[in-house]
Design brief:
With 145 residues, the protein is mainly alpha-helical. It has helices spanning 2-28, 35-44, 51-58, 62-74, 96-117, 122-142; strands at 49-50, 78-81, 91-94. Strands 1-3-2 form a three-stranded antiparallel sheet. The longest helix is centred in the N-terminal third of the chain and has 27 residues, at 2-28.
Length: 145
Amino acid sequence: MEGDAFSAFAITALRLAGHLTAAGDRLAKPAGQTSARWQVLAAARRGDMSVAQIARALGLARQGVQRLADVLESEGLIAYADNPQHQRAKLVRLTTEGAARLGVIEVAQAGWADGLGAAFTSGELDAARAVMARLMAMLDEASGG
């Protein structure tokens, strides 16, 4: 049954998400960060996104991203900048120190990803990503997102 196969897929995806978050935390720890903080730092590198836009891009609650951004700002890793498109919604920008911390994480992540990626063909990974992207789009559409 397709429903049973989908349920098994969903359970596996949730378990994988947990493993990826834990691995991300391990990769980010030497830079004094977590997976969640790493995601916000990476988004801040663009320099043209507000907290709400970052939250939407990451599929997270705006309030949670705002709390993380405020902590990162208090630590000097991001800075808020005026947004010409919206007076109250400041843009989130990476500071020099934030960029240095992000760089440490990304070097570690690249080696980690190369090691795991070598166990699969690019076609296998592309097919898996395509299924996940299609499912996310369907869920976004169903939720009105």
